[in-house]
């Protein structure tokens, strides 16, 4: 890794430099990067991907944010999110009660996924980042810091605090129509955690951290290897599996509501229709986009990219690169319905009076979300550009 562009700020009274050279991670085109001012960005001149953004010193900005976010995690776990009062019966839900209720109803796979994405991944991500930044300030930093910091990048897309919060909002909207609802302190802590984690992502300059890792003799920044043609086969397999599961995900119910002995089965589309009939149509539009439009866009968009890449097509490469970035960004937001179901199942369980259980459609839908995300991660976008030698 080369460096030597001065004027990037200071870190331990030393200049933080930006990379002098970088290969685009999306199309593979090598670049010589100009000096960047604070907040400046460099983009690939061929595909438009972000190459580097000069951010603040991680030890002065990112580390305090991480240290502020970590204490919120036990608050979110130990205090209730929502309290519910129906006909004198009072219940509360915590973060862990959702996964436990899903396991109780026979969908332990869904419970593990909810716990993994809403709590475990954010905890590990913040913990690894904290240990890395603190460890690099030590006289003898631990040897495992490069692996820890590498895991921060891998885990980032699976930390779904903001999506879980939207699931809480949708669940709250459904509950206020049937009972007296109170928001708990954990919900406010979740909002604060979402803001802080977004701030952490926006402030972290990964290159500055890798530069310090290299300077301390712990290793070098990971390099992009050659494009992997096998990624097409992996992406196809995952995408086909997601397409097969998309049918039961929309046909079978995601929730089963039992009220006074009468069962009502609700699919994803029926849930959207219920939101649209009241004064919550903006939320209905959001859920429709996240649960119906986004999965379709991912399936169709990835299919187009895989077919075009397999044929070696050079048509509208830059547009396909933008499409790939959109699909990569929006994939996680389809989890809103899954999180909503986990909250309702844990909160509304009052025997013969009223209870809500998960439907098999929720498990199929969650599988679609995970498989499409894995298909996107498995796809190497540089394969789209392998027949292009010069910048377009």
Q: What features would you describe in this structure?
A:
With 392 residues, this protein is mostly helical. The chain folds into two domains: 1-54, no CATH class; 55-385, no CATH class. The protein has helices at 62-69, 72-78, 97-104, 108-135, 145-155, 161-175, 185-203, 206-215, 230-251, 268-277, 281-310, 317-330, 336-347, 360-378; strands at residues 10-11, 14-15, 21-23, 30-32, 41-43, 50-53, 82-86, 89-93, 180-183, 255-259, 262-266, 354-358. The strands form five sheets. A three-stranded antiparallel β-sheet has the order 8-7-9. A three-stranded antiparallel β-sheet has the order 11-10-12. It has a two-stranded antiparallel ribbon with strand order 1-2. A hairpin with a 2-residue loop joins strand 10 and strand 11. The protein is globular and about 70 Å long. The two termini are 26 Å apart. Mean pLDDT is 83; it is low at 1-16.
Q: Could you give the topology of this structure?
A:
Blueprint: E1 10-11, E2 14-15, E3 21-23, E4 30-32, E5 41-43, E6 50-53, H1 62-69, H2 72-78, E7 82-86, E8 89-93, H3 97-104, H4 108-135, H5 145-155, H6 161-175, E9 180-183, H7 185-203, H8 206-215, H9 230-251, E10 255-259, E11 262-266, H10 268-277, H11 281-310, H12 317-330, H13 336-347, E12 354-358, H14 360-378
Antiparallel strand pairs: 1-2, 3-4, 5-6, 7-8, 7-9, 10-11, 10-12
Helix pairs in contact: 1-4, 1-7, 2-7, 3-4, 3-13, 4-5, 6-7, 6-13, 9-11, 9-14, 10-11, 11-12, 11-14
């Amino acid at each position: 890794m080369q460096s030597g562009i001065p004027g990037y700020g200071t870190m331990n009274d030393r200049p933080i430099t930006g990379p002098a050279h970088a290969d685009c991670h999306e199309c593979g085109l090598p670049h010589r990067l100009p000096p960047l001012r604070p907040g400046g960005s460099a983009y690939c001149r061929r595909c438009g991907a972000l190459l580097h953004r000069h951010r603040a010193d991680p030890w002065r900005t990112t580390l305090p944010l991480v240290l502020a976010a970590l204490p919120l995690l036990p608050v979110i776990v130990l205090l209730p999110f929502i309290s519910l009062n129906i006909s004198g019966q009072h219940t509360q839900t915590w973060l862990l009660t959702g996964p436990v209720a899903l396991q109780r109803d026979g969908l332990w796979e869904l419970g593990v996924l909810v716990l993994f994405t809403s709590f475990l991944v954010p905890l590990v991500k913040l913990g690894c980042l904290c240990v890395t930044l603190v460890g690099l300030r030590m006289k003898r930093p631990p040897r495992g810091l490069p692996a820890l910091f590498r895991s921060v990048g891998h885990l980032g897309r699976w930390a779904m605090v903001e999506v879980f919060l939207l699931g809480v909002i949708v669940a709250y909207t459904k509950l206020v129509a049937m009972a007296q609802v109170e928001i708990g302190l954990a919900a406010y802590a979740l909002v604060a955690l979402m803001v802080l984690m977004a701030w952490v992502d926006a402030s972290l300059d990964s290159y500055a951290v890798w530069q310090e890792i290299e300077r301390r003799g712990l290793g070098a920044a990971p390099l992009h290897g050659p494009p992997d043609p096998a990624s097409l086969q992996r992406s196809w397999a995952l995408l086909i599996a997601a397409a097969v599961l998309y049918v039961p995900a929309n046909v079978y119910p995601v929730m089963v509501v039992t009220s006074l002995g009468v069962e009502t089965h609700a699919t994803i589309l029926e849930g959207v229709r219920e939101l649209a009939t009241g004064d919550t149509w903006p939320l209905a539009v959001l859920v429709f986009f996240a649960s119906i439009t986004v999965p379709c866009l991912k399936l169709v968009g990835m299919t187009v990219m895989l077919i075009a890449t397999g044929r070696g097509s050079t048509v509208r490469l830059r547009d396909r690169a933008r499409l790939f970035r959109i699909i990569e960004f929006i994939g996680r937001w389809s989890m809103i319905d899954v999180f909503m179901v986990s909250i309702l199942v844990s909160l509304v369980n009052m025997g013969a009076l009223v209870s809500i259980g998960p439907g098999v459609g929720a498990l199929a839908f969650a599988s679609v979300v995970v498989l499409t995300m894995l298909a996107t991660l498995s796809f190497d976008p540089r394969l789209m550009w392998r027949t292009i030698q010069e910048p377009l």
